[in-house]
Structure formats: C-alpha cells, structure tokens
Amino acid sequence: MAQPDLSKLVSLAKRRGFVFPSSEIYGGIGSSWDYGPLGVELKRNVKEAWWRAMVYERDDVVGLDSAIIQNPQVWVASGHAENFTDPLVECPECRKRFRPDHLDDPTKCPDDSTTLSAPRMFNLMFKTFVGPVEDSANQVWLRPETAQGIFINFDNVLTAMRHKLPFGIAQIGKSFRNEITPGNFIFRTREFEQMEMEFFVKPGEDDYWHRHWIEQRFNWYRDLGIREENLRLRDHDPDELAHYAKATADVEYNFPWGWGELEGIANRTDFDLSQHEAVSGKTMKYFDQEANEHYFPYVIEPAAGADRAALTFMFDAYDEEMAPTGDGKEEVRTVLRFHPDIAPAQVAVLPLSRNAKLTPTARDVHAQVRHVFRSQYDDAQSIGRRYRRQDEIGTPLCVTVDFQTVEEDQAVTIRNRDSMQQHRVPIADLADALRSALRDMGSTRV
Ligand code: GAP
To answer: What is the mean pLDDT of each run of 10 residues along the chain (446 residues)?
Structure first.
C-alpha cells in the first residue's frame, strides 16, 4: 500500500470534508485546523474506540471530565509552571523562532542561514485571565495535559467509587500548548485532544503494570488496523524523560517525515500525588486496608493524542491502485482502507440513479440501515463516481438499489470497498448481511 505524501493527504482531507484549515476566509491562523463532517466522525470513532477499550471493557477503570481552567496552584504542584519548557532559538535577521532540536543545524536559521541566538527556555503553557481584571492575581493557565485534572480528583473518585488498587481514571479532552514549531498538519498543533488514563498501583507493582499497559496500547493501534510494520515501541533515553517520569515508552508510527510519537506510556511514580499533597495540604494517600497502611500509589499513564491517532488512521488507510472503469479502461482508484470501527460511515446506500421509481425503496432501505449502522445516502452523479467517492472516504460497504430490486426481487447489491466484489441479498436479510460483512472486515462493534 502506498503511503501518500503529506500534501496529498491534506488535499484529500480538505476536498472530502475531513479537515479544513481554520479561519481560512481570514487567511488562516498558524496550525489551527477544523474537523469537517467526515473528520468529526473519524475523530469521534477514535475516541469511542479508546473509551471502549480503556473504560467499558475493563472492571478497573472509570471516567472523568475535569475543567480546562484550574487553580494555578495545580501547575505549580505538577511542576509545569517551572519545568514545562522547550528550548527556543531566534534568528536576529528574520525574527523567526525555532526549536533547536527540530533543526538539522541548530546554530543556523533554516530560512536565511544567519547564526541563531543561544537557546533559552520557553514555557509552553497558554496564559489567560479569569474575570475582568488582567493582573497576576487573576492569571490562570489553559491545561497543557488532561492528567492533572485526574490527580486532583483522585480522592473524590476514590471516595465516590470505593475502588481498591489497582484502578484507573480515564479522561478525553482538549489540551493547549504554545508549541514553538507546530506542524505536519494535525500532528503537532497548539490546541489538541488528549486521551489519557492514570492507573494507580501499589508501589513495587509499577514495573509489571507499566509493561502491561505498553503492550495493551501497542495492540490497540494494531487491532484497529494500523499495519504492524509501521508501528514500533521506543524507550525514552534518561535525558529525554519528562520531569515526572521514571521510565517512558512511546508508541511510534512511521510517518512520511520519519518515526513520530503517537502515545507515551509513562511510569510517573508517586510524583504527582505527593506533590499535590505537599502543595495543597490535603491528603492524597491511599489507605490499604489489607496492609493497614497509608501510602502514595504509583501511577502508570498511557497518554495518547486523538488528533495524532486520527492522522495515523488516515495515513495508514491510504491506498492507490489501478481499477477498471467499466468501459475496458483503467484508472487510479484512491481508497482509504479504514477499519470498519474507525471509518466515518460504515455503509452507503446508493440508488442506481436518481429515479422516481428507485427513490422510495432506496430511502426505505436507508431508513432501515441507519438505525443500525453509521450510514450515508447518496444519489448524485453516476454510480461509478459515487463508488469512487465512497472508496475515497473509506466506507467499507455500499448498498445499491437498482431496477431489479423494485421490479423483480426486493434484493439489493452489497459492494465491498476492498475487493470491489458484489453480492445480492434480500432486503429482509440486509442488516444481518451487512453485520456479517463488517465483521469479516474486522469490526468487533456490530
Ligand atoms: N500527560 C502526559 C502527556 O501529556 P505528552 O507525551 O506530552 O504526555 C501525550 O502528550 C500525547 O498527546 C502525545 O503522545 C501526542 O499524541 C499528544 N500531543 C502532545 N502534544 C501535542 C500537540 N502539540 N499536538 C497534537 N498532539 C499532541
């Protein structure tokens, strides 16, 4: 399968309604993107698949949705106020700013080769103010990770849910970082969605659970169709570990620009809970009834990005192949071979043409299908063009209503996106036939 270059994917994403440049009518704003009708479905499916794997399919994880704006002391305790920095260098000529570790030669401006300034540390948190007075007493930060919302609610969740260790708290939500060099489309942006889970364990059991979660998280991408040869695990070197981590392994994907992080699985030790206890003065310890002792649990954190995952699913699904046009010729067929649980639509219902004889039955079929599956109805343009469009947006199955359906057999054709094979089924059996075809393509959700 051919991986597209970035510009091809960006163009498909815009043309087909996955992702648009934000504020485009005003000339855009660096590295902000809006999800269109198909992109929003794709990202919802990514988040839904994550929530299902992390919360619904486990007995030991619950969910949370905490605030984006928190008491600034949270970020003092977590170390972000002091340590959440990246090195920044500036070109004295063109005034552009760069992260030296993102440059081939960290001493020279990549645009005009001027010698760059010495690196200084730049805090990535966005500052804003609560209320009408813009002074330091009212200054707050937008959260740069969802994790701290979980730590500060550790005791609330424990008291409400009466869980015993080990247990986890999962959260999906927006985070904000004033990245010095955002880029590569939705890979690195200043506003993005994270999918994070903090798993609290007994100290001493942390290495076991760290390995467990590294394996689980790698398998999640693989089981949703990302090709294993494009995935790898990479341990952080000691000098790249975050200020809170004892060990971290990243799940990485082989993007056209090289291997890039999809997710970090960190052993955060008892850093965050002990910091919050020290700064807030409130107890953050766990009472272990069996051992009859209070202690800080250790924390294993799988932290993923919903936008990066959506981008990865698009890259990995992209394929081009030569396909017959129907008149004896061939043309390039672009297909997004999404896993059926990730594809924006699972089924498209297509009348052979926009014809008064076909429309009522086709609408009827769609009404049945949409109850059970994520589906689209499309009757514009020729059937060949509509198949191509559905291939390009990654719809696994098309259901075609033709004249034989209404005049003879009350049966429809199901076309498979990948094989382009078609088979006919009675409308009465359609839901079962679609379910079985989607399962054959890997769905575990129908
Ligand atoms: N709580 C730990 C934490 O936030 P991280 O490695 O900084 O760890 C976790 O972030 C994940 O969030 C990353 O692996 C990535 O998928 C996503 N992420 C981080 N910064 C991002 C950005 N600027 N744009 C898009 N996604 C980002």
So the answer is: 85 97 94 96 98 98 98 97 92 93 92 94 95 93 98 97 96 97 95 98 98 98 98 96 94 97 98 98 96 97 98 97 86 96 98 96 98 97 95 98 97 98 98 98 95
Closest CA to 264 of 246, 282, 290: 246
The pair of structure tokens assigned to 168 is 């986890």
C-alpha 128/C-alpha 142 separation (Å) is: 7
Ligand 1: centre distance to CA 306 (Å): 9
Contact between residue 401 and residue 350 where contact means Cβ atoms under 8 Å apart = yes
CA 195 to ligand 1 centroid distance, Å: 9
How long a stretch of residues is the chain? 446
CA–centroid distance, residue 1 to ligand 1 (Å): 28
Residue type at 93? E
Q: Which of 179, 261, 299 to mutate to test the pocket of ligand 1 (most atoms within 8 A of CB)?
A: 261
Q: d(Cα 83, Cα 156) in Å, to the nearest integer?
A: 27
The number of the ligand 1 atom at minimal distance from the alpha carbon of 193 is 26
Please name which of 259, 342, 442, 317 lies closest in space to residue 1, comparing C-alpha atoms: 317
Q: Which atom of ligand 1 is nearest to the CA of 177?
A: 23
The DSSP code sequence of 180-203 is: SS-BTTTTB-SEEEEEEEEEEE-T
